[in-house]
Amino acid sequence: MNRIPTATPIEPTQPPIVRTVKSVIMKVSVLLTAALLIGSNAFAADTLSTNVTKATVFLSGAQVFRESSNMNIKKGVNEVIIKDVSPNLNPKNIQASALGNFLILDVQYQTEYVPPSAVEPTIVPEKIQKEINWLNDSILFISFEKERISAKLHNLNEEKRMITENQLIKSGGISDTLPEFKEVVTFYREKLDEINELIYVWKKKQHLLAARENKFRIRLNKLQNYARNTGQPSRPAKTRHHILVTTYSDVSTYGKIGVNYLVTNAGWIPAYDLRAQNTTDPMTITYKADVYQSTGEDWDKVKLTLSTYNQNVFAQKPTIGIWRLDYTINKPRINPTTGSVEKISVQATQNFYSQEEAESARRDMSNEALKDNKEITFNQQLISIQNMAEINQNFSNVEFNVKLPYTIKADGTHKLMVVTSDKMDADYLHYMLPRVNKNAFLIAKIGDWENLSLLPGEANIYFKQTIVGNTYLDPQILTDTMEVTLGKDEGIISRRKKINEEQKKGILSKNIVKTYTFQIVVKNTSRAAIDLTVEDQIPITKNEDITIKLEDGGGATLDKDSGRLTWDVQMKPGEEKVIEFSYSIEHEKNKPVS
User: Fold this and answer.
1) What is the residue range of 578's domain?
2) How far is 355 from 340, CA to CA, in rounded Å?
3) Is 65 exposed, middle or buried (CB count within 10 Å of its CB: 0-12, 13-18, 19+)?
4) Which of 111, 321, 414, 482 is deepest in the core (most CB within 10 A)?
5) 573 vs 391, residue with greater confidence
């Protein structure tokens, strides 16, 4: 290793001020010389072993922190390589820190090409090789025996053919006396029986030999396949990713090196559990996180921080643009269920000169609740058993410091974890729409939900330890009160029917007036008193030739813009209540309405 040249010693006779100036010049020269040597090949880089100790996971992306163990920092300028980091890191965002009495002079991102490896020679175990040799010899001897049996069968068949084709029988060349004929026939019969018996014996041996050969060949194929696979397979070429850190120290010392970098292919998805045990206790909201990463490096027992910060936004001073308001022109939309034209609302739109101006204004609007840019204090009553994270909030960004370490493999598998759990006061009431469903639905209204720092996400709803449904929480569109449906209450039932319909002429002879009367019967079959909201409706119209009038609302509140009728009733256990309302429609008798 090259040494940094030292300055000439100062003469004792020189004044103190000269010695001080020269000492400063010497230190500056040392640092300048060290800086000039960065990137040169004069220093051999040492390999540094590091582990991922923590990670800050954003909604998209993550910041990974690695730290080495306590190591010897050599005197002078040295280079160390942190090997096999994530291939998905951003080289522009690599940072290094020195934990000790030394300096970090430079941090560089490097790649290393690893060529493919050759196949190692196959080494077959001695026992397997002996069996392979024995099988080969056995199959060879079996082939010899098969040839001998085939020759035997050939000879026997030829002998049989010669006997059956003997000319003495065909030409009558022998004496045709009866005793002689019988003697010849007996000879042929005995000889043919003997030959056939021998053919049967040799064919049986041939069959058994073929079966034995087949068994040996199957075993031999298995052993040969095993022998071929005992060699190490070749590894394809790959690229390794490293971080080169250059350090400087005046003396040999000890310390640690930490690096951190941003990676893609990671993130977390918020999810929630809303739980209510009964209609008197507060509701529990459990904040969960579905964390995933496929960064190319496993996170083993890593301390996690979940952040809502958008790390892709540049930290630049925002600029104010021009805010224009105009009417949004929308085409009428047809409701696929009812076939009616949906109501079109006039919306205010914003036009900006640039994307940066749009992002700046969007952030400003999202922070309207932050007065004078003061830091928000996040006060919560946390549940000690279920709270798995500490929460830090600054402006619109929230960080959840997860208390337990987690292991997340780099295969994209999602890891679901509980972040925190809070109890929120809720008002419980029953809602009923008899014209659609005869049963009531239990509703929970939650206030002050803004303090929960919710993000858009799916939520499972539980009531009495039973899942009753799911919903989607979107804080951007929620009102001051969050309304959650806890499911159908079979104990509250209703019956709705039309009890009267009258028709008469109007003031003008060409008009008719139809009056409809409906009755709703509600019964509380449960053992608890309830607050119940019952809704129904009457039709509305924009046609000036049609007149709709609520004749008797039965104590309901009428929303004239929507025609909604609302009754707020209190019901005791086992109580039954009857609600009646009527309305009239006046229109031309020759023009039906619908």
Assistant:
1) 426-460+472-594
2) 38
3) buried
4) 482
5) 573
Q: Which helix (H) or strand (E) holds 111?
A: strand 103-114
Token digits of residue 253: 């010392």
Closest alpha carbon to 553 in 531, 512, 522, 584? 584
In a domain, 255, yes or no: no
Based on the domain organization, do 159 and 202 belong to the same domain?
yes
Q: Based on the domain organization, do 326 and 454 belong to the same domain?
A: no
What is 291-360 written as a DSSP string? EEE-SSS-EEEEEEEEE---TTS-------------B------B-TTT-PBPPP---B----SSHHHHHH
H/E stretch holding 128 reads helix 126-164
Contact indicator for 556, 587 with CB cutoff of 8 Å: no
How far apart are alpha carbons 109 and 130 in whole angstroms? 54
Q: What is the mean pLDDT of residues 362-383?
A: 36
Backbone angles phi, psi at 309, to 5 degrees: -70, 140
- Residue 44 Cα distances to 35, 81, 286, angstroms: 16, 10, 53
398 and 272 part of one domain: yes
451 DSSP assignment: G
List pLDDT tens digits, range 404-445: 899 999 988 899 988 888 888 888 888 999 998 898 888 888
Per-residue pLDDT, 263: 92
| Residue 232 DSSP one-character state | P
SS3 217: helix
Residue 114 has pLDDT above 60, yes or no: yes
Q: Say how far apart CA 153 and CA 147 lie, in whole Å.
A: 10
How many CA atoms does the CB half-sphere of 236 hold within 13 Å?
Answer: 2
Whether 103 contacts 177, CB under 8 Å:
no
Helix (H) or strand (E) run with residue 266 in it: strand 266-276
* Residue after which a domain boundary falls, among 437, 471, 505: 471
Query: What's the half-sphere exposure (Cβ side, CA atoms, 13 Å) at 106?
Result: 16
Is 105 strand, coil or helix? strand
Q: For residues 126 and 129, what is the distance between their CA atoms, to the nearest angstrom?
A: 5
What's the CA gap between 369 and 515, in Å, rounded?
50
d(CA 350, CA 477): 18
pLDDT tens string 30-45: 444 444 444 444 345 7
How far apart CA 579 and CA 565 sit, in angstroms, is: 11
Residues 6+ apart with CB under 8 A from 16: none
Sign of the CA dihedral running 3, 5, 6, 11: positive
DSSP string of 160-194, one letter each residue: HHHHHT-HHHHHT-S---HHHHHHHHHHHHHHHHH
Half-sphere exposure of 487 (CA within 13 A, CB side): 20
pTM value > 0.85: no
Domain assignment of residue 387, yes or no = yes
